[in-house]
Amino acid sequence: SSREVRAAGEERNRELILKQMEENNASKMEVWNNKRVSSSIEINQSFGGADKQEMERLQKGIKDRQSQLDHLSKLTQESAAEISVFEESISHIKLSTGVNNMTEMIIKMCQHDERQAELLRDNENAEARLNAAKKAFFD
Q1: Is the pTM of the predicted complex or chain greater than 0.70?
Q2: How many whole angstroms separate alpha carbon 7 and alpha carbon 1?
C-alpha cells in the first residue's frame, strides 16, 4: 500500500541521514584530530623542536585519516545513488503491474504464467464455441 511505500521511503531516508551524519561526524573528528596534531607539533617545537620521526608519523596519520574520510564520502554518495536507482525501479514496476506493495508484486509475477495459460485455455474454449455456433447456424 502507499503507507508501506511511504514507510519504506522514510526508512531509506533515515538510513541516508544516518550515513550523512556518520560522514559529518567523521569530518568533525578529522578536523579535531588535525587541530590536536597541529597543537602537539607546536608544543613539541616550542620545547626545542619535535622529534622528526614523530612529526612524520603524525603527518602520515593525518593523511591516512583524510584518505579514510574521502573513502567514506565516496561510499555514501554511491549508496545514495544506488538507493535512488532502486527506488525508481520499484516505482516503475509498481506502476507497470498495478500493485501497491512488494508482496503483491511478487505474487503477481509468480502467477503470471498461470494466468497466461488460463487465458489461452479460455481463448481456445471461446473459439471452439464460436466454431460450433457457426456450424450449427449454417447447417
Answers
A1: no
A2: 10
